[in-house]
Amino acid sequence: MYGRKVKLRFFFIILVLITLILSVFLILKSLEENVVYFKSPSDIRTLSETNKNKIRVGGMVKKNSISIKEKKLNFIITDFENEINVSYSGAVPNLFSEGKGVVAEGYLKDKSFFLATKILAKHDENYMPPEVKAALEEK
């Protein structure tokens, strides 16, 4: 019924559509694995359950909360309403200090303890990450 050219064009269009759909699926799947959600200590307190996904917790480093024991850095992140204890092993940025904004990336053990794998405080003393600023302005 249809000629050879029509069948070839139809096959080509179907092949392009399948390739496009597969490409979009693979891109979205890889992005899903690399997404890291930002939470404030107050957001963490309201979670119904703790999951094992990587998240970022941001806020201010509480005054007099930094302690170093056996190459482990322990400190408290606060949004001036709620607090979360953070434990970190590794090199800290030079500008990491008490009373400054910080974003810690890692895994939530429970609603009051966070195990950080990375500390993000690579900014000057006047800059605050937009997520932290927005979270603090809400409070």
Describe the structure.
- The protein has 139 residues and is α+β, with helices and mostly antiparallel strands.
- It has three helices and seven strands; from the N terminus they run αβαββββββα.
- It has two domains: 1-34; 37-138, Nucleic acid-binding proteins (OB fold (Dihydrolipoamide Acetyltransferase, E2P), Beta Barrel), CATH 2.40.50.
- The longest helix has 31 residues, at 4-34.
- The radius of gyration is 23 Å and the shape is elongated.
Labels describing this entry:
139 residues, alpha+beta, OB fold (Dihydrolipoamide Acetyltransferase, E2P), 2 domains, 3 helices, 32% helix
Number of strands: 7
Q: Low-confidence segments, ≥5 residues, pLDDT <50?
A: none
The percent range for helix content is 25-40%
Rg, alpha carbons: 23 Å
* Sheet/helix structural class: alpha+beta
